[in-house]
Amino acid sequence: MLQIDGSKGEGGGQILRSSLSMAMVTGSDVHIKNIRAGRSKPGLMRQHLACVKAAQQICNAQVSGAEVGSTEITFKPGAITAGEYEFVVGTAGSTLLIFQTVLPALVLADGESRVKFEGGTHNMFAPSFDFAQLAFVPVLRHMGFDVELQLDRHGFYPQGGGRWQAVIKPLSHSKALDLCQAGALKAKQAVATSVNIPAHVAERELAEVAKCCGWEQQDLRADWVSCLGSGNVLSLRLQHEHCAEVVEYCGKIGVSAEQVAKRAVKALRRYQQSPAAVGEHLADQLLLPMVIACGGVFRTLKPSLHTLTNVDVIHRFTEKRFELVELEKDCWEVQL
C-alpha cells in the first residue's frame, strides 16, 4: 500500500485530494497519514471529509478513518462508475474542491455523469465557480475534456447553501496541452458580486479598480444575487486569445472595500508583468488533467507550494515526472 505523508509540502488538504484522485485513476491502495498537519486545526474538516465520501462513492472504495478530525485514512478504490451523484458539504466549505477531486476519475468512466453540488461556491482559499467556469474548464476543453457547468445559487462563507451542477462526459480523445503564450487580450472586466450588503461596498471596490488600473466604466460591473446570508467577492478577469486569468478576493469584515480591490489588483499586475500564460492558481489545477490526457507544456508564474506539492504527489503514484524550468523572473515552463 502506498504511503502518503500529509505533512509534506503545503501540508494542507491538497495532498489528500490529489492522493484520492490519483488513487482512483491508477487503482492504487493508499494510506494517508498526518492529514493537514500544517494547519492550525489538523485532520479532516467537513469539506475534506466530503471529498473522501465523494471519492468513495464514485469508485465504491473501502475506506477507514473517514470522520471529522481524523488525521489518517486508508483508501482502497474499486471500479469507477459513471452516474448521477449529489455531494453536499453541509457547511460553506468549497464544493469546487470536491469537483476537482472527482473530475479526473469521472472522465475515465464508461459513461456520462451528472453531478450536483451543495455548499460554498465562492470561498476565501479555494477556486470559485467563476474561476472554474471561465479559466479552468476552457483549458480542459483544449485538451479534449467535455465538461459543462451550471450555477444555480451562490454560496458564500459562512452560510454556504450554494448549488451548482456539472455534466462530465468520458474522455474519448485527448491532446497534449500547449499553452506557452496567452495571446492577444480580447477583453477585461471587474465584477463585484454581492448579496445583502450595502451597495457602496461594491461601488467602492470597482472605483478603486478603475483608479488603480485605468479601466473604463464599461469594464466594471456590479452583480447582485439572491442566496443565503451575505457576502461579496471581487473578480478581475482577463480574457486572452488562448486562455483566461481570473483573480478573486472575497470581502471580509474588518477589510475595507479599497483594500480588497488593491489586493486583487496587486495579484493581477503580477500576472500582467510576466510573459507567462497560466496564472499561479490555475497552474496547480492543470497537473492532474495533464496526467489523464497526453501531457503537454505550459508557462506560468513562479510555481506555488501547492503546485510543487501536486508534482510530488503525482510522481508518487506514477512514473511520470513534471519538469519545471525557470525561463526568466517569474516565468517558468512546466512540461510532462
Task: Give the structure's gist in a few sentences.
By secondary structure, this protein is of the alpha/beta class. Among the domains are: 1-79, 2-Layer Sandwich (Translation Initiation Factor IF3), CATH 3.30.110; 185-273, RNA 3'-terminal phosphate cyclase, insert domain (Dihydrodipicolinate Reductase, domain 2, 2-Layer Sandwich).
CATH architecture of the domain at 185-273: 2-Layer Sandwich
Order of helices and strands: EHEHEEEHEHEEEEHEEEHHEHEE
Named CATH topology of the domain at 185-273? Dihydrodipicolinate Reductase, domain 2
At the first level of CATH, what is the class of the domain at 185-273? Alpha Beta
The end-to-end distance, rounded to whole angstroms, is 26 Å
What is the number of beta strands?
A: 16
Gyration radius, in Å? 19 Å
In terms of DSSP E residues, the strand content is 25-35%
Q: Count of helical segments?
A: 8
- CATH superfamily membership of the domain at 185-273, which one? RNA 3'-terminal phosphate cyclase, insert domain
What spatial form do the alpha-carbon principal axes imply?
globular
Widest sheet: strand ordering: 1-2-4-3
> What structural class do the secondary elements suggest?
alpha/beta
> Which bin fits the share of residues in helices?
25-40%
Poorly predicted runs of 5 or more residues:
none
Biggest sheet record? 4 strands, mixed
Average pLDDT figure = 96
